[in-house]
Amino acid sequence: LLADPGWTGEALLNILKNSIEHTPPGGEIRIACEDNPLFTRIVIADSGVGIAPEDLPYIFNRFYKGRNAKDDSVGIGLAMAYAIVKKQDGDITVRSERGRGTTFTVTFYKQTI
C-alpha cells in the first residue's frame, strides 16, 4: 500500500471508532484486507445497530450527525476519513442495514506505469 501512514491510520481509526461505538457488547467487528496488482482494499464490518437509510447519503458530510450519534459526537470523524482517502485517490463506501450492522470499504488504487 502506497499511502501516507499517519493520515491513513487516522482515517481507519475513525472508521473503527465508529464501529466500536455502535456495536453492542458481544457484537463483532471484522477487518479484512485484500491486496492485488490493481488495488489494496480494507473492509471494516460490524454487527452493530446499523445506519438509518435516510442518514447514509450524508454520513461523510462534515458536522453531520446521524440519528444514532452519541451526544458528544461532533460529526467530523467519518468526514475526515473520507477526505483523507479521497486525497490519496482512493475510494470509501458504506453499506448498512438497521439492526444488522455496517460495512465500510476503503480502496487504494496502485499506480501503474
How would you explain this protein's 3D organization?
The chain is α+β, with helices and mostly antiparallel strands and about 110 residues long. Helix content is about 25%, strand content about 30%. The protein has two helices and four strands, in the order αββαββ. Helix 1 (about 5-20) packs antiparallel against helix 2. The two termini are about 15 Å apart. The model has no long low-confidence stretch (mean pLDDT about 90).
Q: What tags apply to this protein structure?
A:
113 residues, alpha+beta, four-stranded antiparallel beta sheet, 2 helices, 25% helix, globular
Question: Can you give me a brief rundown of this structure?
Answer:
This protein has 113 residues and is an alpha+beta fold.
Write the layout of secondary structure elements.
Blueprint: H1 5-21, E1 29-35, E2 39-46, H2 77-87, E3 90-97, E4 101-109
Antiparallel strand pairs: 1-2, 2-4, 3-4
Helix pairs in contact: 1-2
Gyration radius, in Å: 14 Å
Instruction: Please state how the strands of the largest beta sheet are arranged side by side.
Output: 1-2-4-3
Summed over residues and divided by their number, the pLDDT gives a mean of 89
Shape: globular
Which regions have little confidence, pLDDT < 50, spanning 5+ residues? Answer: none
Beta fraction = 25-35%
Overall helicity: 10-25%
Number of strands: 4
Count of helices?
A: 2
The biggest sheet amounts to: 4 strands, antiparallel
Specify the structural class: alpha+beta
Distance between the termini: 16 Å
Pattern of helices and strands = HEEHEE
